[in-house]
Specification:
The longest helix is centred in the middle third of the chain and has 29 residues. It contains 36 helices and seven strands. A hairpin with a 3-residue loop joins strand 1 and strand 2. The two termini are 66 Å apart. It is flat, with a radius of gyration of 35 Å. The strands form three sheets. The chain has a three-stranded antiparallel sheet. 58% of the residues lie in helices and 3% in strands. The protein has 793 residues and is an all-alpha fold.
Length: 793
């Protein structure tokens, strides 16, 4: 077939001809054949030999590699020593990859694969045969583009990292030599490991202090400089604070940089013959700060501009679901329209042009199905089987015209182009036979939008997709849950399966068994279950996909594929099931939006569901989690949820302010019920700050305690200390403890402070606050530990 020949034309133009290879490189050809003999697959053997021929063609064409060419032609004649060609071989292999990439005859992935195969061949030759140049264990063929530090591009960093040359002018060449030794010890990530120190030294230069001067002197080798671990820790914390407050970098990035600074100082103090100050990276603790939970609302969808909160989440989820549903419907319609050609029963009494178009499609489908049934691969694959090749080639030529498909009755899926490429034709052929990659992926997206499942349990749904059907809904579950359900159902299982719709006692038994299986919780960690209404998009998508999935079971012998409902047919993959990438699988539109993933869809669903069920504990059952810890830190840690917590803080503040009834200038007292007084008291006591906020816990009292806040320096200082402790722990607090303790406590403090200012105590607050901040900064006092960063309860 002409289209298939064009795909492999690159090998003929870029590779050294096989006869020339065997004639001019007899020893090399024999040794490469020896290497290929270890590979079981003959197709893969051919790939490695082709990769070598592609490389040798470069040596023939480029004069600067003729020395290496002459050596490889007769390696036994010793034109030179093998080690003389080590460097030139590495250069030639890299240029061979660039040549394949620039030719345009190979995709970037295939060009990289050929180049890697060539490297593997010559690395083995150098290691096993003593007559060839040697290659290192790692030979990077292309420069990887690192994303760099995660930062907000709209915010300018407070300072730039100092260059190595400038560091040498400040600290001397001896220190730079030691810094490079640390960098080299970190492998290919060495440059990133010293980036934090470059920011640190830049901060020290711009913000001199007693600690920074002592550290600079110690690093420069000044014998009179006195610097200890406390000074190093203080400088790291100061730099970390400035970077965090700038907002230019993410919290994870800053913590990683400062942690690497600790590793560097620990490395330096262990060097022999140096006088660097002692330091251990364990002296400073870096608390893990979970990343903010993203949702689909964070992506660039123009349809959600101007919306906020739940309305934005609901709209974007509908947008993605509708786009995926449209793909499912179009594929199902196309599959139905191709039924006569797929079943090889083209009607006789139709127009001549339509009959010719239908026969062309039927010819290709007939040969394709035979090849897949025999080998599991397409007829155009190297492992496939060709049938009636000339007729198929003529039919493929006819199918290059979109009009041929439209004449045969296909309206959907036909690209708007003048001529279809080989890839586009084969995608349509696969869609004629069964579920294509796009159809299966779109159906999974619809299901994820509707049920909020992870990708893995969706892919684990068994072929009998509906466990049972009721009058208005049906049960769907992944494999492990279905197994538990059937074991508990016992002799009722057959009844569930025999009746298309369960009513009466059978319905009661089915629901009771379903709920017992849910409570048992012995299924797999990632399995899910749900009841789908017959009007839900997920149910409609599953029903539309069932006819497309059923033919694929007869086209594969892989039990891993057959035991799943979701599978797809690809002309170059056969029948498969695993799908991850969404954006790269669809034409430009909603589903091709960069960043669209299954985890993001699930997070959007769960954050929207939180507004429906009202609590994290209730959301846990919808998410299929045993606890709420993962939900809080990974799914609900978003700006919207944080904004709701701030609203809760204001609620507590307003509530407390409305309860304060004392005259201005006197002690503040709260008027509330005994139950509310006890709740506030327990809240303050469990946080360890009862005395600071006005509760006298040293003297036992009868009955519920009452809050009395006096205008003393000690009480005000304690109150402000609790506020500073809340500020310090907010970013690293356990989300659940922050919601239960931190939010109401902050509102409590804000209410007291507001009334103090109204009473004319602003100057008092300012004076005591400045004194407290100075004492904390210089280490004379410690903030009260609030215990908000512990484990989930």
């Amino acid at each position: 077939m002409e289209a298939a020949k064009e795909r492999f034309a690159g090998a003929n133009t870029l590779a050294l001809p096989l006869d020339v290879f065997e004639q001019d490189y007899p020893t090399l050809a024999k040794d490469i054949a020896h290497y290929a003999s270890f590979i079981p697959s003959k197709n893969k053997q051919t790939k490695y030999i082709l990769a070598s021929r592609l490389f040798l063609r470069l040596l023939e064409e480029d004069p600067k590699f003729h020395g290496l060419r002459d050596f490889l032609r007769e390696p036994n004649d010793r034109v030179g020593q093998p080690e003389d060609f080590d460097e030139i071989l590495k250069i030639a292999l890299k240029e061979s990859y660039e040549r394949l990439l620039a030719s345009g005859l190979y995709s970037p992935a295939i060009a990289f694969e050929h180049a890697q195969n060539g490297v593997a061949v010559f690395r083995w030759l150098g290691a096993q045969k003593q007559i060839y140049p040697k290659l290192p264990k790692a030979l990077p063929l292309k420069t990887w583009k690192r994303k760099g530090p995660r930062r907000s591009k709209d915010i300018k960093p407070p300072f730039q990292p100092m260059e190595i040359g400038e560091i040498e002018s400040v600290l001397g060449d001896v220190f730079v030599e030691d810094l490079k030794a640390f960098q080299n010890s970190s492998g290919r990530f060495g440059a990133q490991r010293v980036l934090g120190f470059r920011y640190l030294i830049s901060y020290i230069k711009d913000h001199p202090s007693g600690h920074s001067d002592a550290l600079l002197g110690a690093l420069a080798g000044n014998p009179d400089a006195v610097c200890d671990a406390a000074a190093i820790k203080a400088v790291i914390e100061e730099c970390e604070g400035v970077l965090r407050r700038s907002g230019a970098f993410s919290q994870q990035t800053i913590a990683g940089w400062m942690r690497n600074c600790g590793h560097l100082f620990e490395f330096l103090c262990g060097l022999h013959g140096r006088t660097y100050p002692h330091y251990s990276r364990r002296y400073k603790k870096f608390t893990y700060v979970p990343a903010e939970s993203g949702t689909l609302a964070d992506l660039d969808f123009p349809e959600i501009k101007g919306l906020v909160g739940a309305a934005k989440l609901r709209r974007v989820l509908e947008l993605v679901c509708d786009a995926a549903m449209d793909v499912v419907r179009r594929h199902a319609s196309f599959f139905d329209s191709m039924t006569p050609m797929r079943e090889d029963r083209v009607p006789l009494g139709i127009a001549k042009e339509k009959r010719a178009a239908c026969n062309a499609i039927a010819t290709v489908l007939r040969a394709e199905l035979r090849s897949i049934r025999l080998t599991g691969n397409s007829q155009f694959s190297k492992s496939g089987v060709r049938t009636n090749g000339k007729a198929v080639d003529r039919a493929m030529k006819a199918l290059e015209s979109p009009d041929t498909w439209r004449e045969a009755g296909a309206v959907n899926l036909i690209p708007v182009v003048e001529t279809l490429s080989f890839q586009q034709i084969m995608q349509l052929v696969c869609a004629c036979i069964g579920a294509s990659h796009q159809a299966a992926l779109a159906a999974k997206i619809v299901f994820c939008c509707e049920a909020g499942w992870n990708r893995q349990p969706i892919e684990d749904i068994p072929p009998e997709v509906f466990v049972f059907r009721l009058v208005d809904e049906a049960g769907v579950a992944s494999a492990s849950f279905v197994s538990v359900f059937k074991n508990r159902a016992g002799h009722f299982v057959q009844a569930f399966l025999d009746y298309p719709v369960l009513t009466g006692g059978r319905k009661t038994n089915a629901i009771a068994t379903w709920e017992e299986a849910e409570r048992e919780q012995v299924w797999g960690d990632f399995d899910q279950r749900c009841m789908l209404s017959y009007t839900s998009p997920a149910y409609v998508a599953l029903e539309l996909m069932r006819p497309l999935m059923e033919p694929l079971n007869d086209l594969t012998k892989d039990e891993e594929v057959r035991r799943r409902f979701f599978k797809y047919l690809g002309w170059n993959t056969g029948v498969s099931w695993s799908q991850r990438d969404i954006a790269g699988s669809f034409e430009p539109g909603t589903l091709s939006t960069r960043g669209l993933t299954f985890p993001l869809i699930r997070k959007t669903f769960l954050q929207l569901m939180l507004r429906v069920v009202g609590s994290v504990e209730s959301l846990r059952t919808h998410a299929g989690h045993a606890g709420t810890g993962v939900l809080l830190s990974h799914y609900l840690n978003s700006p919207d949820v944080k904004r709701e917590l701030e609203q809760s803080t204001r609620f507590f503040q307003n509530a407390v302010q409305s309860l304060i009834v004392s005259d201005v200038g006197g002690p503040l007292q709260l008027v509330m019920s005994e139950e509310d007084q006890e709740w506030f008291y327990n809240l303050a006591r469990i946080s360890g700050v009862a005395s600071a906020v006005g509760y006298d816990v040293s003297t036992p009292v009868a009955g519920p305690p009452a809050l009395v806040f006096d205008f003393t320096d000690e009480q005000v200082r304690g109150l402000l200390a609790v506020g500073m402790a809340l500020d310090a722990e907010e970013k690293t607090a356990n989300p659940r403890r922050w919601a239960l303790i931190g939010v109401p406590l902050r509102g409590f403090i804000k209410a007291i402070v507001t009334n103090l200012k109204a009473a004319g105590a602003s100057r008092l607050l300012k004076r005591i606050g400045e004194e407290l901040a100075t004492d904390v900064r210089e280490g004379r006092v410690a903030l009260p530990p609030l215990s908000l960063s512990g484990g989930y309860k």
